[in-house]
């Protein structure tokens, strides 16, 4: 199932469907009815799903399983909380593997076939946080950063049903697909389908905000719930316009996270990357923290450092390596980071961590 979810297979053309119906001896009037349903789906480039049972076959699940998963999805998730960078806790609802595989199929075989807006830089192959900050580089730029409040929870099951129906799926299939991707009536944080679906449903929002930005001579990008505008001048009228468009799209801004950075600012952090110098850099506090960790490891030794931290994390070096690799991704020419990574790599070989 995982392999099928990740591999995009070629979909039959309309003529191939017609030929299939003829070869099966389907009556012309019934074939015409089928073709009428298939045509918009083929045009959109998404898989044809006739009904609930057909969906079961495509997902490799029994009608009994899919019936339970669509009618009582809460039994197919585990919910936990993780700390937010800004403080507080974020609730994560992670689907069990049986449902997760269905959601991955929907994400890859349906949603990923549809182009998201160019301004959407998250959850897309070949993009990263650097793709999001690139349009905003420039020391002379003003930068406005706004955040959508409760991003995934704001996308309702009803809205998803309408979106699947807009692709051409009938009501039965649209409800089943939306039900498999939602929990308590909205997109859950933790489902592999939520990021893909959020980008798809925000296409109109991104289109409108891109047009507004363009009218003011500004660049615009959106990385999940973070939206960024930059340019030589941010007019006072921009924020009310953005808030209005966001509201009309079924979302709300988190005004506490709205930030405006002027060209003279020493810190312009966009999705965790400081672009104040005109080139991407890890924020100063994060660089200093990692440099301190490496200083203690290099001076006193890894085991002494870990003992002082009173850490029992068996994957400490692996996690540290991941943070350093992220730093290097943002600053690929930083030789200090390269030296840190080489040192941690040797420690991993010695201590068998990762």
UniProtKB/TrEMBL annotation:
Organism whose genome encodes this protein: Pelomonas lactea
PANTHER family reported for this sequence: NUCLEAR INTRON MATURASE 1, MITOCHONDRIAL-RELATED, RNA-DIRECTED DNA POLYMERASE
Name of the protein in question: RNA-directed DNA polymerase
The protein's enzyme class: transferase
Catalytic activity as recorded in UniProt: DNA(n) + a 2'-deoxyribonucleoside 5'-triphosphate = DNA(n+1) + diphosphate
SUPFAM superfamilies: DNA/RNA polymerases
Family the UniProt entry places it in: Belongs to the bacterial reverse transcriptase family.
Keyword list, A-Z: Antiviral defense, Magnesium, Metal-binding, Nucleotidyltransferase, RNA-directed DNA polymerase, Transferase
